[in-house]
Amino acid sequence: MSTTQLLRTLTFVTGNKNKLAEVRASLDGVIDVIAVDIDLPELQGEPGSIAEEKCRMAAQQVNGPVIIEDTCLCFNALDGLPGPYIKWFLKKLGHDGLNRMLAGFEDKSAYALCTFAYCRGPNEQPILFEGRCPGRIVPARGPPNFGWDPIFEPTGYNETFAEMALATKLDISHRSRALTALKQYFAGQPMDH
Ligand SMILES: O=c1[nH]cnc2c1ncn2[C@@H]1O[C@H](COP(=O)(O)OP(=O)(O)O)[C@@H](O)[C@H]1O
Ligand SMILES: [Mg+2]
Question: How many other C-beta atoms can be found within 10 angstroms of the C-beta atom of residue 189?
């Protein structure tokens, strides 16, 4: 039997190629990730319930086990906003606009919050895995390849996510921390789950 047949396979519903690359890198050799691009509605509410509902809809559409992921960028001065709405804030305001939102505040601290959800199939209860990374919002530095990476400087580093090597980001990121929890969960589950 080849090694790949010994790997657990999970279907990840996403249309975001950067997320997919990071997830594949983090789970390399542990979980084989199959990507399915289905456009799922983005709901409003608290991050946990958004991820849960997104996962329920994904399991319904795929008609089988799935994982999904939702990422928030939360400004402490704004009590956690834009949070789950960061995608639209980023699209409309860009990196400069996001910095300007904090112009009236001394507190530039923020955190990235990543929630993975796993659902075994239609009408099953999703399980959530969270990861957080604290940092602060800075004027953009580094290549603009992935979302708000150029304006997020994680605590303890003087490089933004965009400036650092991907391996460094994967060591500390919100996404990697959530994936560590997900890997721990699956390590304790039989292969058919
Ligand atoms: O690790 C990251 N670094 C920088 N930007 C990110 C990261 N993860 C997600 N984003 C961006 O944050 C926003 C919120 O992500 P969401 O999870 O709703 O994205 P998706 O719909 O593109 O999958 C999107 O604009 C996405 O590109
Ligand atoms: Mg979202």
Answer: 10
Kindly report the three-state secondary structure assignment for every residue of 141-169.
CCCCCCCCHHHEEECCCCCCCCCCCHHHH
Give the ligand at the shortest distance from the Cα of 135.
Answer: 1
Q: Is 132 known to sit in a ligand binding site?
A: no
3-state secondary structure of 35: strand
Q: How far is the CA of 190 from the centre of ligand 2 (A)?
A: 30
Residue 160 within any structural domain of the chain: yes
Residue at 130 is within a domain: yes
Whichever domain contains 98, its CATH number is 3.90.950.10
Q: Decide if 192 is inside a domain.
A: no
Residue 29 domain-assigned? yes
- Residue 16: CB within 6 Å of ligand 1? yes
pLDDT digits (tens, 9 = 90+) for 163-193: 999 999 999 999 999 999 999 999 888 887 6
The ipTM (two decimal places) reads 0.96
Q: Which residues pair with 24 in a beta bridge?
A: none
**Predicted TM-score of the model (pTM):** 0.94
